[in-house]
Amino acid sequence: MKNNSNFYFTNLNTTHGQGFDDSNVSGFGYSLSNKKNSIRTDGNFALSQLLKTDTSSTNAFQTTLGYKYFIGLQKTGGNFEYGISRTLTNSTYYPADLGFQSIPNIVRNRFYIDYRLLNPYKSLQAANLSISSNYNTDFITKERTNFELQFESFVMRRSFNAYFFGAGIAPLPYKDYYEAREEGRVFNGFRYYYFYFGISTDYRKKFAVDYNNSIPNFIDRYQSFGYNNEIKLRYRFSNKFTTVYEFAFAYDPYSIGFADKQGEDIYFATRRINNYTNSISFRYIFKNNLALNINARHYWGTGDYQNYFILQQNGDLLPTENYNGINNFSFNAANIDAVFNWQFAPGSDITLTYKYALISDEIVPTIPKFGDNLKSLQNLPNVNSISLKVLYFLDWVYVKKYMKPKSRA
After folding, report:
1. What CA–CA distance (Å, rounded) separates 186 from 177?
2. How far from each other are the two terminal CA atoms of the chain, in whole angstroms?
3. Of the candidates 143, 134, 128, which has an alpha carbon nearest to the alpha carbon of residue 169?
4. 330 burial class (0-12, 13-18, 19+ CB within 10 angstroms)?
5. In the predicted model, is pLDDT for residue 316 greater than 90?
6. With contact defined as beta carbons under 8 Å apart, do 98 and 46 qualify?
7. Residues 379, 368: contact at Cβ < 8 Å?
8. Among residues 252, 248, 302, which one has the least CA distance to residue 277?
9. 41-76 pLDDT, tens per residue?
10. Radius of gyration of the chain measured on its C-alpha atoms
11. What distance in Å separates the CA atoms of residue 83 and residue 72, rounded to the nearest whole number?
């Protein structure tokens, strides 16, 4: 449409038969701009139908309808951009049978202001500052489920070294309707804050470094700080061959959440969380439309449970010493992926993928050491898979030209 505007319609459907449930999701959306492209409004709306087989009647279904929508209004262009949006997902919206996950019962209201440096200024090549707020409520109860204020900044100097910093705070308590793992129960979440910072060096050079660190904490239950460090080392051997190594370590001394359920009692606990990630990737470009990517990654996450609580009916936590269960966990995920991609025509690809994976999720009395954990990986069952995907893009303008009937002499 005019002014970079557009409109679309989608429909996804699964029909299983033989007494299984069927699903259908239909939706439409739009993006409309004025002539100057300075004001834009976006929206999308979806209706889901879950068709459950009615065992009391032959070939009859019970239909559950759900809906979801997003609508936004933005000022675009220029140094300052700002906008507001609202997203609503009701309690019965269900797209999961079609391969999409969506958390129901959420109403999200967002507001943001962005400042962008459009042209280089003195020692700055580019810069962006952003302030935003998200206010979420539960669709059914109307209770607040989150309220967060955020600040983000990004600066790139003429040397092409980039720096970023951000912070966020949830200044009000909120209701968590999912962590209790039981419908109708709620957990009163704690107020929190966090900040992060990082640097990214010049990618034009053969060797480049990305580093970022985030630090969170609770407001009401002050503990020692957690942190999440991540570093990436990039090296370009040539214009065709590049490798990237990544190491990340996250530590949370006071993570709190669901631990167990015994009878009518729901137990929460504080746990010490450690997450390690090691990965390395190689990319070789044979020519502009032909490339090979190889990625190897190992992730290890552990949880060491410390103190237990009983969840009260009002959502508060009551300390308890009567729980004797073991919930310490050790989770491993290791994989190697090799992806060969050939773009044989504009917008059209052939992708051949090989995957090798090891996964284990164990409840352990004590957390093993990093070296001992690595040795245990060789005893895990593995999964191998090969997939081939062919994507062909049809240009309607091109197709339409050949569909026109030829005139007769």
Report:
1. 5
2. 37
3. 134
4. buried
5. yes
6. no
7. no
8. 248
9. 999 999 999 888 766 655 567 889 999 999 999 999
10. 26
11. 7
Helix-strand-coil split of the chain, %, nearest 5: 5, 65, 30
Contact, 273 vs 257, CB < 8 A?
Answer: no
Closest CA to 365 of 301, 275, 305: 305
Q: Kindly give the residue spans of alpha helices, DSSP state H, lying in 33-126.
A: none
Residue type, position 179, single letter: E
> In this structure, what token pair is assigned to residue 353?
């993928």
For residue 407, what is the DSSP state? P
- Which one-letter DSSP state was computed for residue 121? B
Q: Is-contact 72 36, C-beta < 8 A?
A: no
User: Looking at this protein, which amino acid is placed at residue 353?
Assistant: T
Amino acid identity of residue 248, one-letter, is: A
List Cα–Cα distances, 215 to 148, 269, 290, 306, in angstroms. 16, 21, 41, 21
Q: Residue 46 and residue 23: Cα distance in Å, rounded?
A: 13
3-state SS string over 53-76?
ECCCCCCCEEEEEEEEEEEEEEEC
Rounded-to-10 torsion of CA 333, 336, 338, 339: 10
Q: Give the DSSP letter string of 204-267.
A: TSSEEEEEEEEEEEESSS--SPPEEEEEEEEEESSSSEEEEEEEEEEEEEEEEEEEEEETTEEE
Residues with Cβ < 8 Å from 42, sequence gap 6 or more?
A: 29, 30, 31, 32, 70, 71, 72, 74, 85
Q: Which two tokens stand for residue 51?
A: 């068709």
pLDDT tens-digit series, residues 177-226 = 999 999 889 999 999 999 999 999 999 999 999 999 999 999 987 677 89
